[in-house]
Every structure is written in C-alpha cells, then in structure tokens.
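Appendix B. Chain record.
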Amino acid sequence: MKNHTPESAITVKGQATIPKAIREHLRLKPGDRVKFFIHPDGTVVILPKLPATALRGILHSPGSRALSIADMNRAIARAVVARNQPRKRR
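Structure tokens predicted for this chain:
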C-alpha cells in the first residue's frame, strides 16, 4: 500500500472539496457540517460538528443504574475499537 496524503485545490470562491478518504474517515455525509480548529503551532484540525441529537441518552435516566468509572472506561474502549474497525462496503 502506498503512502498517499489526500489533498484538494482551493477554488476562486475559497472552497475546497474534502477528499473521499477524509470524508469516509470522519463519516461525513452530504449536508453534514464541520468545524475547524487552529492550534497555536499553526496546525488546523477539522472535525464533524455533531448535532444536539447525538447527545441524546448520555444523561442519567430514571430507572437506570449508575455506572462506575470502570464501566464508562470499558464502554469508551469498546466504542473506540468499533469506530476504528474497517467499514464494510455494500
């Protein structure tokens, strides 16, 4: 596998197309929004802007059991592994 760094050209309107590999990595779909962060060292980070609905269910709901920090860490680890699994093509 060759090492390929995706790149894009800027149009006269200041627009750029996000390369397919980056869109897939960030799981971006048409209509999604992104945020840009400029770090003090000059690097720029692009992240998907999550809708408020993405936060649904993160707060304690009546009748649910309290989670320990260990439970939360295990859930986070499972989510990270799942997110980094190669996506199946349809």
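Further analysis of this model is presented in Appendix C.
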